[in-house]
Amino acid sequence: MMKQYDDIIIGFGKGGKTLAAELARRGHKVAMIERSDKMYGGTCINIGCIPTKTLVHAAKLAPHGVSWTDQKNYYAQAIRQKEDVVSLLRQKNYDNLTHHPNVTVYTGTGSFTAPDKVEVSLSGREKESLQAPRIFINTGAESIIPPIEGIKGNPHVFTSTSIMELKELPEKLAVIGGGYVGLEFASMYASFGSQVTVLEGHADLIPREDRDVADIVKEVLEKKGITFRMNAKVQSIAGKEIAVRDAVSEEPFHLEADAILLATGRRPFTEGLNLEAAGVETDERGAVKVNERLQTTNPHVWAIGDVKGGLQFTYISLDDYRIIREDLFGDSARSTADRDPVGYSVFIDPPLSRIGLNEEEALRKGLNVKIGKLPVAGIPRARTLGETEGLFKVVIDADTNKIVGCTLFGPESSEVLNSVAIAMKAGMDYTFLRDFIFTHPSMSEALNDLMNV
Ligand SMILES: Cc1cc2nc3c(=O)[nH]c(=O)nc-3n(C[C@H](O)[C@H](O)[C@H](O)COP(=O)(O)OP(=O)(O)OC[C@H]3O[C@@H](n4cnc5c(N)ncnc54)[C@H](O)[C@@H]3O)c2cc1C
Ligand SMILES: NC(=O)c1ccc[n+]([C@@H]2O[C@H](COP(=O)([O-])OP(=O)(O)OC[C@H]3O[C@@H](n4cnc5c(N)ncnc54)[C@H](O)[C@@H]3O)[C@@H](O)[C@H]2O)c1
């Protein structure tokens, strides 16, 4: 029998679960469909931000100069702690929705059968048919598995999800891909005590950043013991052996690793959704096509988060929820068009955080720029923390006095960046931060000096 709802949400991601609670609070009858009982709360809680940042923190505190057995024991304990944090949050996320009388959580895979109908395949052969005038797709993204021979069935090859289940610290770790996931895991495992090699296919590390910043990041990570092989084209993997070719010199080389992490990107996940039945189109990258208010090509179906392509961050999924909330219940003033600039942090040690344009991008745009640079070693708080590596850099439009971009590589940069973001969003001149009264000693107070250009 067809079950009627006001709203169906497919996927328990950040935006979807927040929207479910909001709709339920407003008296809507909501169905939330999640395909896995290990994924209530979505990627961030279970296999993304929260477990990685729990491990990044534990890695920072890892003992050094101790035996390999002690390092392994410490790592195993960190994995257990991570599991505790994740299961607590997963349960909390589940309870938050199931405790609401207006929400029904279905644990099964959702698939469209018509523009307003979704079938849920529950465990076993059971199915439920649901119908609603509004449907929201929040199915996230999946790891891209590169077409390299020897990956399938190889117990030494991992994705970011499966490596966090690995209970034994790998002595040697090879990371294929030097993006967000690659660098965060490389930095974390190096801190736990693994010997890490990053194999990056591109000629430059973090190509989106200014070269002066990228060079310092590379130098700091190399000091941690990480080896970088750029232009690295992995040819095949056999057990622990990786056959690589240098794309420039054409030289082949081999590498042995106890664990091999695939960190070659994530793409929108729409498998099994049967989008055609709903008239929902995808683009050439497989992302669900949306307009500025996140409506798909079917105006009664919306897409939220990673599944719609673009920036893959939890806070983007959350902001997608705000756009939809305002569209359904507010003045529809919010849209994806007024979102920029959006900041980000890569949680290496120390973290790398950035918002807006970098120097190279600003120059390419023909802006007349003033550049402020501050070595982290010159910041009193960095001294008290004993973490003096890194560089802060700001790009100011000399004609308007506005901050057009800021890159912070140093301790607590993921926090400090938010102050810069607020100043930028509020349209303040750079002098606002130059003359702002910050607490002392704090990393934020370095913005006084950074902006003193
Ligand atoms: C290792 C890692 C670290 C990260 N670290 C950060 C970070 O520090 N900060 C940050 O902001 N972002 C980080 N991200 C990115 C962030 O996790 C994602 O951008 C965010 O979680 C995406 O959320 P979402 O709302 O799109 O959906 P998701 O949270 O991905 O939820 C989608 C859900 O849909 C379910 N689903 C899929 N198909 C179906 C179906 N047909 N039927 C039913 N259910 C289905 C999935 O099981 C999943 O639970 C990280 C990602 C990874 C992989
Ligand atoms: N701190 C955070 O906010 C955070 C942390 C982790 C992940 N994420 C999100 O997850 C997404 C996915 O991260 P990711 O690091 O997997 O993707 P990414 O796109 O950031 O990086 C992938 C890297 O792999 C390289 N690559 C691709 N194919 C390769 C191959 N065959 N051999 C060698 N190198 C290859 C690319 O050149 C690129 O540098 C990110 O876009 C990000 O939004 C965010």
Automatic annotation (TrEMBL):
Pyridine nucleotide-disulphide oxidoreductase dimerisation domain ranges (all copies): 345-449
Domain FAD/NAD(P)-binding: 7-315
Disulphide linkage map: C44-C49
Residues where FAD binds: K53, G110, D306
Cofactor note: Binds 1 FAD per subunit.
Domain of life of the organism encoding this protein: Bacteria
Coiled-coil boundaries: none
Gene3D superfamilies reported in the protein's UniProt record: 3.30.390.30, FAD/NAD(P)-binding domain
Listed Pfam families: Pyr_redox_2 (PF07992), Pyr_redox_dim (PF02852)
A GO MF label: NAD(P)H dehydrogenase (quinone) activity
Active-site residues annotated for this sequence: H440 (proton acceptor)
Cofactor(s) annotated in UniProt: FAD
Keywords: Disulfide bond, FAD, Flavoprotein, NAD, NADP, Nucleotide-binding, Oxidoreductase, Redox-active center
Residues given in the record as NAD(+) binding sites: G177, G178, G179, Y180, V181, G182, L183, E184, E200, G265
Family: Belongs to the class-I pyridine nucleotide-disulfide oxidoreductase family.
Family annotation (PANTHER family): MERCURIC REDUCTASE (PTHR43014), PYRIDINE NUCLEOTIDE-DISULFIDE OXIDOREDUCTASE RCLA-RELATED (PTHR43014:SF4)
Protein name (record): Putative dihydrolipoyl dehydrogenase
Source organism of the structure: Paraprevotella clara YIT 11840
